[in-house]
Amino acid sequence: MRPDDAAAFQEFVRSRWPRLVRTAYLMTGDYAEAEDVAQTALARAGASWRRIQASERPDAYVRRILVNCNNNRFRRKRPTLVFGDKPLDVPGPDPTHRVDQREALRDALLRLPPRQRAAVVLRYWEDLPEAEVALVMGCSVGTVKSQAARGLDKLRADPALSDVAPMDGAAGLPPSAGRQVQREKQHGRV
């Protein structure tokens, strides 16, 4: 890698690392596993950095690698999910009442099948448009819509989430998911 490419890649890693780990954490449910998946994704991205950097959307390219690395975990062997006692580190103050909500939501996300989980995380936490989620997941926009809708339905029906007061959005989902659900209800899609 040329020195200027190496510097650009280092800056990319430095600025994207927290978000990539957070996204991987929501897909894996384990902080250490999330770091491993993010590191593997960035190692693969580093090997192709010149091509990725030249693309229109390097972030989308790296997210695609991240999703593929997570999916490869399931191809190799079915991982044993061990829930740590350490919640995801989020900058800023975190009121203690939200810890239970996050844990319940994390556990509910982990009960979703991997493709539904990826669709929900990318669509609502990453707030990506459906077309970009389709590119990242390597499927059609219709598949993203159906996987996300099924995932949201399962989250809404999850008994563990019914005991938890909603955060800012529907079923404890981020605000963008709540807005999306409201728009879908207005248009008769939910």
Determine the number of helices (DSSP H or I, runs of at least 4 residues): 10
Helix share, percent: over 70%
Question: Structural class given helices, strands, pairing?
Answer: mainly alpha
Arithmetic mean pLDDT: 80
CA-atom Rg in angstroms: 17 Å
Shape: globular
Q: How many strands in all?
A: 0
Structure description:
The chain is mostly helical and about 190 residues long. It is about 70% helix and about 0% strand. The chain has 10 helices and no strands. The longest helix has 26 residues. About 5% of the residues have low confidence.
Short description:
By secondary structure, the chain is mainly alpha-helical.
Main attributes of the structure:
single chain, 190 residues, 10 helices, mainly alpha, 72% helix
Write the layout of secondary structure elements.
Layout: H1 3-28, H2 31-47, H3 49-54, H4 58-76, H5 96-111, H6 114-125, H7 130-137, H8 141-157, H9 159-162, H10 175-186
